[in-house]
Amino acid sequence: MRILKIGMVQQTKGADRAENIARLKEGIRDCAAKGAQLVVLQELHNTVYFCQSEDASLCDLAEPIPGPSTEEFGALARELGVVIVLSLFERRAPGIYHNTAVVLEKDGTIAGKYRKMHIPDDPLFYEKFYFTPGDLGFHPIETSVGSLGVLVCWDQWYPEAARAMALEGADLLIYPTAIGGVPTDPLEEQKMQMGAWELVQRGHAVANGLPVITVNRVGHEPDPSGVTDGIRFWGHSFACGQQGEILTEFPTDREDVRVVDVDLDRTEYVRRGWPFFRDRRIDAYSPLLSRFGK
């Protein structure tokens, strides 16, 4: 068995960026002390989730890649000998910004990056105001611990994204995430939304015979505009195996740090029993390239 020990860091975020980063480092160190070879952080982990309102001055939070975060976390990756998945607000050029995941190799170098492809525009999730859609495609990032199919948050609802990563040879799917309940939705609706969120990602595991790692932020973050009550992030980070089986599931109301064992070799066994890739009708899928119907 090829067991990969994966650290997952679920945290709340405050206004002090330096404090957020210090606490992230503590979480990464905790994972490494527990034997993690790979550590996954949540979406846009350095700051509060600033997309609740539209404010052009918040683009000052963006940074280049390579840049301060890749240098700082790269030094930690090198010190601890772990691969780290970061999620950063990338400043590509004046007026061009991306929501970008960066994978740091255990020697601290940048193994690769992925720019979020699907950009939402919903109440309290005004990401289209800030982020240019990704242009790097769906390509796994090769590392010393495996081929990482890194996607970001809203991407997790799209089976096409998961399939594309799988077809490119990903060993597992990884989703840094920032999702929670909108206060105008009834509690029962929010509960169903969270259930659907977990279910669709477990479906990606089943359909592709790949483990899935999802790390979400947790806690309440106020709306800086004061128009709404803000977002209560679900937490509920989780890891599942190749048949959608839950390997670990985080609480919904507090921070947590865990290390989970994932058997990458199980993919071979599962795909032999459920040969979805063998039976795909690639000659008949052209409608998938249309927006809708006829």
Plain-language structure description:
By secondary structure, the protein is of the alpha+beta class. Helix content is 23%, strand content 29%. The protein has a single domain, classed as Carbon-nitrogen hydrolase (Nitrilase/N-carbamoyl-D-aminoacid amidohydrolase, 4-Layer Sandwich), CATH 3.60.110. It contains 5 helices and 17 strands. It has a 6-stranded mixed beta sheet with strand order 5-4-3-2-1-17. Strands 8-9-10-12-15-16 form a 6-stranded mixed beta sheet, covered by helices on one side. It has a 3-stranded antiparallel beta sheet with strand order 11-14-13, covered by helices on one side. The N and C termini lie far apart (47 Å). The model has no long low-confidence stretch (mean pLDDT 97).
What are its keywords?
6-stranded mixed β-sheet, globular, 294 residues, 17 strands, Nitrilase/N-carbamoyl-D-aminoacid amidohydrolase, 5 helices, alpha+beta, 29% strand
